[in-house]
Amino acid sequence: MSSSTITSRKRVQGSLLSHILLFAAHLCIPTSLVVAQVSAPMELTEEREHPSKRLAHPSFVKHCQEEYWYSTTDEFSPFGSDEGFDLFNEFIEWRNKHKSEDVYNFFLGIVGRKYGNKPTRESMKPYIADMRKSMPELSDAEFEKILNQILEKDFSPYIRTTLISASFCQLYVDGSIDSKLLDLSLTALNDELNPVNLSKIIGDVEGYKGSLLKQRTVLESIRNSK
Fold first, then answer.
1. Where does residue 175 fall: left (phi above 0), alpha (psi -120 to 50 degrees), or beta otherwise?
2. Could you give the CA distance from residue 95 to residue 213 in angstroms, rounded to a whole number?
3. Does residue 91 sit in helix, strand or coil?
4. Each residue's pLDDT tens digit, 33-51
5. Domain span at residue 220?
6. Dihedral-angle region of residue 28 (phi above 0 means left; psi in -120 to 50 means alpha; beta otherwise)
7. Are 179 and 220 in contact (CB under 8 A)?
8. Residue 2 lies in a domain
């Protein structure tokens, strides 16, 4: 999944990506803790030709008419970011097996599992020497830079994107949104729209902001109709 206007916090390019993923593999850290998770293309079977208007709940279609809402390639759409795409697939699979269980706890569990255990230098200490040996082509300064990137990584943008997408996942499948989840998604949206956070975006800032506003309009409309 890619676009010409992805943000620098979404991707890590070239050999740096390979080294960070290698770190994650050795440390048994989920790769989603290090970089945005790389997703395989969605399997287009009869059961899983999602997302599409044909398979979406009518309530989702009512609020989300444009093709934008069904895109898995538009980084700004609810299912187009790496976080949103992965969450959508996980929720579809989970919902098929848990027809009536609480979605709020499911989505919070996803966030906790992916972003709840930030690595520290102390927790990585037993592995650092082996990691250094596995990267002989790097200078000490380059190795330290990679190590610091892992330790200093701010996961809050990924968490906000996940929480925003969560409401659209449930709306697509169930045709409704849990009230606690809806409030959490709107809080994440407003936080992402904060000028301080928008100033960190590299790329199409206005396009990203417009997309967030479009999503907020839909979620606020649903909350106001309750």
1. left
2. 28
3. helix
4. 333 333 333 333 444 578 9
5. 49-117+154-226
6. left
7. no
8. no
Instruction: Give residue 190's pLDDT.
Output: 96
Measured in whole angstroms, the distance separating CA 140 from the mean position of its chain's CA atoms is 32
156 close to 162: Cβ distance less than 8 angstroms: no
Q: Which one, of 192, 164, 146, 144, lies nearest residue 22 by Cα?
A: 146
106 and 162 fall within a common domain: yes
Sign of the alpha-carbon torsion through 55, 56, 62, 66: negative
Q: Which of 103, 128, 152 is the last residue of a domain?
A: 152
Nearest to 162 by CA among 25, 32, 69: 32
Q: Which residues contact 10 (CB under 8 A, 6 or more apart)?
A: 36, 75, 81, 82
Q: Based on the fold, state whether residues 56 and 130 are members of the same structural domain.
A: no
If you ran DSSP here, which 8-state letter would residue 68 be given?
G
Query: Residue 166 above 90 pLDDT?
Result: yes
